[in-house]
Amino acid sequence: MLRSLGLLGPTGNMLPVKVVTTLTNGEKVTGNLSYTYHSLDNWQRGEEIDGMEFTLRNNLVSEYRYVLTYLGI
């Protein structure tokens, strides 16, 4: 999944924005996803940069932040 998120880029319109999961006790957890894309301008060979960041917030007052980094070859 992470690979496809990185390949779709900022023009992708197929990225999920809401995920609903049911816990074993029957409680539903709703997660909302948001995406931020960082500019790849002036990306140098051998330089590692943050390419995309996504944040997951759910109704249990939890927040998770993930960053996809790119290494210039």
Order of helices and strands: HEEEE
Please mark out the parts with pLDDT under 50 across 5 or more consecutive residues, or reply none: none
Q: What's the total number of strands? A: 4
Number of helical stretches of at least 4 residues: 1
> Averaged pLDDT, please?
79
The radius of gyration over CA amounts to 15 Å
Largest sheet, spatial ordering of strands: 1-2-3-4
Helix content: under 10%
* Global geometry: elongated
* Secondary structural class: mainly beta
Sheet having the most strands: 4 strands, antiparallel
Q: CA-to-CA gap between the ends?
A: 22 Å
Q: How large a portion of the residues is in β-strands, by DSSP E?
A: over 45%
Task: Describe, in plain words, how this protein is organized in 3D.
Strand 3 and strand 4 form a beta hairpin. This protein is 10% helix and 49% strand. It has a four-stranded antiparallel sheet, with no helix packed on it. It is mostly beta strands. The mean pLDDT is 79. It is elongated.
Features:
10% helix, 73 residues, four-stranded antiparallel beta sheet, mainly beta
Quick structural overview:
10% of the residues lie in helices and 49% in strands. The protein has 73 residues and is mainly β. Strands 1-2-3-4 form a four-stranded antiparallel sheet, with no helix packed on it.
